[in-house]
Amino acid sequence: MFRRFLLCSGTAALVNLAAGFLFYGVFGLDGPVTYPLSVAMAFAAGMVVSFVLNRRYTYEASGRSIWVELRDFFGVSIGGLVITTALATLINRSLTELGAEFVPLGTESFAHICAVGLTAIYSFIAHKRISFRKAESHPPSATPARPEPLVSAD
């Protein structure tokens, strides 16, 4: 299952990274405010791809509605977005302050790749336990006993 997750999420990560490079590398959204925004927008593009592929190929049918899965997936992904954006920003700033011109692909792309990779562990566990968890089966309920009146009719 983890291999399928890595394949599906790897495809989503490629979409994420390509979109990020488009935003900060091509469109120039690489400033102190616009770089985190670029990473967040790229994450959203990857999130759509991840939901579709992982729902179809990685996790077994949960027995829950697609809308409930999507809602939970979105919630888990928001956590991933926060983690990815914070890590990418922190790594990028750290590398820039160190004057790390030696980093292949540039500090923005390198930081983004590192952040996406680290977030994958969180994502697999959280999507398995939250987004695509099995529907809870409830035993058939017995007819509840009629409650006793608080005041006696006597």
Automatic annotation (TrEMBL):
It is found in: Membrane. It holds the Pfam family GtrA_DPMS_TM. Residues 4-132 form the GtrA/DPMS transmembrane domain. Its main location: membrane. Keywords: Membrane, Transmembrane, Transmembrane helix. The chain crosses the membrane at residues 5-27, 33-53, 73-91, 103-125. It is a multi-pass membrane protein. InterPro entries: GtrA_CellWall_Glycosyl, GtrA_DPMS_TM. Belongs to the GtrA family. This is GtrA family protein. It comes from Litorisediminicola beolgyonensis.
